């Protein structure tokens, strides 16, 4: 059908928050029958990185994979009228957080038809996650797990690291979210020195909305990221020994070596993307968003993945969802709330029965199998059941499309005029198979 206009979006936040925003942008374009302009990625204030969409993702693959869902262009084209070149100026809108589909079908669409193009900024979490339309949800998965492919050099760097780690057998990846921004956000100050507490409090005041928090209670109720030592103690309790090879995905750990030393004593075979290969190529190409992308791919391909904080952590939550979709890969999601009193008691010297208590607390852990999504779990963390199909379902709507569905659509659409598609039985049956 004829497009209703152009949709521009500016995706803010880190790599994975931007990734979620890109999925939402494609869906918003689909809802409005709009032409999507290649999403803009923030020159993020945290990463100081202006790689942009083309610097991170394979643009041609992105456009080709989604060609039957939305039309995508790299920029709004200029138009000629009465011999003059005219550039469409996008009307700027700021959607509410988790805006419903109805907002896009009314307010946004009206402005698009009026101006020819709209610009949604900022565009992070600006479309409701829970939508009662399985095909819309499956589109998000097509974007996230099929269309968004990192550029070849990022994939090559990632595979180099994975291959080196696999030379000695299996390996585990851990996302250590023991970083200043997350500790400040969670209000976890009490295990730090007075000077460090001042730094965290200052960061919180400058970057987050004011909220009454009692730091001494935060860890006790499981609201804090696990410390590196706590991660090591939990892993030891459930059977991992010091021969375990661990890849660490983390930014700069707050408190530094003081917190890493006991973890390293328990698990000396710790690696990151710099230590696996000390070549200049890796060192020069794993900074900023590209470094985060490499970490993402290594964690995705690891035998086991463990997040130390899956609260508002886009990296951990998106990876959990990707690994679920990628074949129910093994994850270890510590129940911080159940572990908190056990770890606090150990700090107080009550070590008797510690490992048995940890094992009991971990019995409720989901290790990566299918499970029903219950709020506040995100769709991007668990797209079961919408994005999972069956070979022989009772309900035809749950049937898996054939593996070569894109080639089939290309063949059908290429052999018939577009105006004949509505009356073509073979095309209609193929299109139905993808829904």
TrEMBL record:
Keywords in alphabetical order: Carbohydrate metabolism, Fucose metabolism, Glycoprotein, Glycosyltransferase, Membrane, Signal-anchor, Transferase, Transmembrane, Transmembrane helix
Pathway(s) per entry: Glycan metabolism
Keyword Ribosomal protein applies: no
Membrane topology of this protein: Single-pass type II membrane protein
Residue ranges with Polar residues bias: 423-435
Family: Belongs to the glycosyltransferase GT106 family.
Protein's UniProt name: O-fucosyltransferase family protein
